[in-house]
Specification:
The structure holds two protein chains of two kinds. By secondary structure, chain A is mostly helical. In chain A, 47% of the residues lie in helices and 0% in strands. Chain A contains 13 helices and no strands. Chain A starts with 14 loop residues before the first helix and ends in a 10-residue tail after the last helix. Chain B has a two-stranded parallel ribbon with strand order 1-4. Classes of the chains: A mainly alpha, B mainly alpha.
Chain lengths: 286, 541
């Protein structure tokens, strides 16, 4: 093998010029291709103008402009959207004033005699965003249940943020509100024997059912999804049936209706019993 | 090794202890994703484990290894004690504290956001603070590398900086540029939200900032391996480095082309326009150049050594290379994995082909082959080369070391090749459990089991690696052999200042960053596209 006396690359090349010329060539070449040539030619439609191609290359497209024709009103499941403004409103709830508002709630939600059938949910320790959204849905008629629509109409938006903050601040009691701790535990997969635990922790891929726990805990929580561990069995079962029969329709994106429709009555019961069992809140069943 | 001995040894031990823990987690994760029963099968635990495995391997092991390697190189290549030893120990303490904070947060189950953070997921503030300390702390090391190189140049005017020192300084600068993205994301977006100072976070901005780090960090991991290729391998092979200038040009090209390319990790993100995706993909193609130059240099240097050992003909020189040296064996195995993984990487960065494999198991298969394979096997070889110099004791033994390297190679291939195939079949990554009784998933089951076998072989290899290091640490045969770097065929006599420092290249890189990232980052200050977070933890009431 022969190597010239100076080595493979002569060290005395004009490195500064090489560096800057390469920089300019790379940038010009890739900008020309990326912003003009490749952005310009579209499959199945005429080429864009050069200006249109550059805008497309930057990520600004015509469809980012407002729609021209009026759209028909959408059938929305709720009027609540989880924007920063909504979350800020919930966060600003005054728990002290909420406690005063909550005197209206205790007759049914706290009094065992009024709730012998357990169809009225436990609210102590409930997530504030959940209470806020359900009150808004009762107020706008997106969800209907007995006296709740009338009560919600009597409350202002600020009142519902306050009462939500009040219930969220209470110690959980039966409802394990602080079960957001992701305690590592076994038996939470398809290997799980009991139907309820399997649906809660693994779901059922063949029917497109995600695990309940991904949104309702234990372990995972999504904004607006109530924590269920410790909730009344009868209440959960009734709500699943209501979603399945399209009686309750206030789930954004219809995810609860899509899931509940696929469940058999036995599976609804199993899931409700799994969440409702008082000593079950975090443990697996085996 | 002057005053770098304990410094380098402490860094290596932290790196390898964390490495061992992370390998165990990795094996369990393979088991979780397979049809075989796994202990503790809980998806939440899986995500905590993936977070810990990724954080450990991507941030802790690599940063500590590179820092230790940097100190050893500074002392040995410059032939004098390191300046700023106190600062180096402070840096070590900060990085260690950051590591412990992050690990504790992940183990508590409140930071299962994976090591790439995935905003708008929100984890514990302890996790983000720990990672910020670890990455921020390592900037002290960056400064120390630059200070030592500049001080040496001042004391030796007109002399070429030794290639190893030049390369480790390029690595340090590359890391400083790369880490700027994640540090800005942490301090500007994630930490303020984690401390409750903001309500929402701009996921698009956070992801774009992280992309500055995300590809360059891979080159930060690779650099120690490349430094070994250029400066240690030709020496161990008994030959000479093909070209000193080519080595310098290669490391300069890595600095220039590995950072303004990260948007190819965002090819499926809607916020970035197609023009910038193309711009950065073009630069990504250019980053293959220094790698190809390195493969060429490596083969040429090994051929020089082989012919020196008496090898003749077209390929005879390969057979006469000292394959019983762990370093040479590791280079051979590393280049095989680099070739396969590099080919996969070219697919990932291509806009059209990326959409076939985006977010599938192909991606982890690719980076395990490149980083876990080609790079980590060189980390092993470097450790075997350095251990006798740091401890003053003989390595026990080279035969076990060869076994370990072979096991790692076989394990990595057995794990990652089936993994590539399930990726092509559409198996998503970052998913804890699969229902393999589904007819769509059933054909993946045997491949997933094969991957588990690969994972088991890797686990055995890692145990063997730690065993060799511990045994060598308690050896009794004292050796005294200084670390020698490869001489070039034409040793540099004088080098133009452009190839003896980084001023020019830092300015060009700054221009690249402005052109390539100015608009993609700047647009978010107009778009104001913040979204609510998805809390992966809940604070106790």
């Amino acid at each position: 093998m022969t190597v010239s006396k100076e080595g493979a690359i002569h060290p005395d090349l004009p490195w500064s010029r090489i560096g800057w010329v390469s920089f300019a060539a790379i940038v010009l070449f890739s900008a020309l291709f990326g912003f003009v040539i490749l952005s310009r030619y579209q499959e199945n439609s005429d080429p864009l103008t050069v200006w249109g191609a550059i805008c497309r290359g930057l990520g600004i497209t015509a469809d980012t402009a407002p729609a021209l024709s009026p759209q028909p009103p959408l059938r929305t499941p709720t009027e609540v959207a989880w924007t920063g403004a909504t979350l800020g409103q919930i966060q600003a709830g005054d728990a002290q004033h909420g406690g005063f508002v909550a005197m209206n709630c205790s007759a049914c939600h706290e009094e065992p005699a009024a709730n012998a059938s357990h169809l009225i949910p436990i609210l102590d320790g409930m997530d504030a965003a959940v209470i806020f959204k359900q009150l808004a849905d009762y107020r706008s008629g997106k969800r209907s249940w007995g006296v709740m629509n009338g009560i919600a109409k009597a409350l202002t938006v600020q009142d519902s943020a306050d009462v939500a903050a009040y219930f969220a601040s209470l110690p959980g009691g039966r409802l394990h509100a602080d079960s957001g701790m992701r305690i590592p535990q076994g038996g939470r997969s398809f290997w799980q024997g009991s139907t309820g635990a399997r649906l809660v922790f693994a779901g059922d891929q063949q029917r497109g059912i995600p695990p309940c726990a991904a949104c309702h805990g234990p372990g995972g929580y999504k904004i607006g999804a109530p924590p269920l561990a410790g909730q009344y069995t009868a209440y959960i079962e009734r709500q699943l049936a209501a979603f399945a029969q399209d009686i309750r329709q206030n789930d954004i994106y219809e995810q609860m209706r899509a899931i509940a429709r696929q469940l058999t009555p036995e599976e609804m019961k199993a899931v409700a019993e799994f969440y409702g069992a008082p000593d079950h809140h975090l443990a697996s069943s085996d | 090794m002057y005053n770098s001995r304990w410094l380098a040894l402490s860094h290596y031990w932290v790196a390898f202890a964390v490495f061992m823990l992370a390998v165990v987690l990795g094996f369990w994760q393979m088991l979780m994703r397979s049809p075989l029963p796994a202990p503790l099968d809980d998806p939440n635990l899986y995500y905590a484990s993936v977070t810990l495995h990724g954080t450990a391997m991507a941030y802790v092991v690599t940063t500590f290894f590179a820092m230790g390697f940097g100190y050893a190189i500074t002392a040995t290549s410059l032939g004098r004690p390191i300046r700023g030893v106190t600062a180096a120990w402070i840096c070590f303490a900060i990085c260690l504290a950051g590591t412990l904070m992050a690990v504790a947060a992940i183990l508590s189950g409140r930071a299962s956001v994976l090591y790439t953070f995935y905003p708008p997921l929100l984890g514990s503030a302890w996790y983000y603070s720990g990672a910020t300390l670890l990455i921020g702390g390592s900037m002290i090391w960056v400064v120390l590398m630059v200070v030592n190189m500049v001080a040496w140049k001042r004391d030796n005017p007109g002399q070429p900086v030794p290639l190893a020192m030049f390369a480790i300084t390029a690595t340090a600068l590359l890391w400083a540029w790369a880490a700027s993205g994640v540090e800005l994301e942490m301090l500007g977006i994630l930490l303020p939200r984690a401390f409750g100072l903001t309500v929402e976070m701009d996921a698009g901005l956070a992801r774009t900032l992280f992309s500055v780090t995300l590809h360059a960090i891979v080159y930060f991991w690779l650099m120690p391996a490349y430094i070994a290729f250029y400066t240690l391998v030709p020496q161990v092979a008994g030959g000479r480095l093909y070209s000193d200038t080519m080595g310098r040009v290669t490391f300069i090209m890595f600095l220039l082309f590995s950072i303004p390319v990260g948007i190819h990790h965002l090819l499926a993100d809607p916020e970035v326009g197609v023009g910038f995706k193309f711009l950065q993909s073009s630069l990504t193609f250019l980053v293959t150049l220094p790698t190809l130059l390195t493969v060429f240099s490596m083969c040429a240097s090994l051929e020089i050594a082989g012919r020196h050992h008496g090898g003749t003909g077209l390929l005879r020189w390969i057979a006469v290379l000292p394959w019983n040296e762990p370093m040479i064996l590791a280079v051979g195995l590393s280049l095989v994995m680099l070739g396969l993984g590099g080919g996969g990487g070219i697919i990932n960065m291509s806009y059209g082909m990326n959409s076939l494999i985006h977010n599938t198991a192909w991606i982890p298969a690719h980076f395990h082959l490149i980083f876990g394979g080609a790079v980590v096997i060189m980390y092993f070889a470097i450790a075997y080369e350095m251990w006798p110099r740091m401890t003053g004791l003989r390595l026990r033994s080279k035969r076990m070391a060869r076994w370990q390297l072979w096991l790692w190679f076989v394990g990595m291939m057995t794990m990652s090749i089936p993994w590539h195939i399930t990726g092509l079949m559409g198996q998503p990554r970052r998913v804890a459990i699969f229902d393999f009784s589904d007819p769509l998933l059933a054909p993946m089951a045997p491949l997933a089991i094969l991957s588990v076998v690969g994972g088991l072989i890797l686990l055995l290899s890692a145990i063997l690696f730690i065993t060799i290091l511990v045994r060598s640490q308690f050896g009794d045969v004292v050796v005294r052999e200084p670390l020698r770097y490869a001489l070039a065929v034409n040793p540099p006599v004088r080098v133009p200042s452009a190839l003896n420092g980084f001023a020019l290249w830092n300015v060009i890189l700054l221009m690249f960053m402005i052109v390539e990232y100015g608009y993609p980052i700047g647009q978010f200050f107009v778009l104001k596209s913040s979204v609510p977070v998805v809390e992966m933890t809940r604070h106790e009431p």
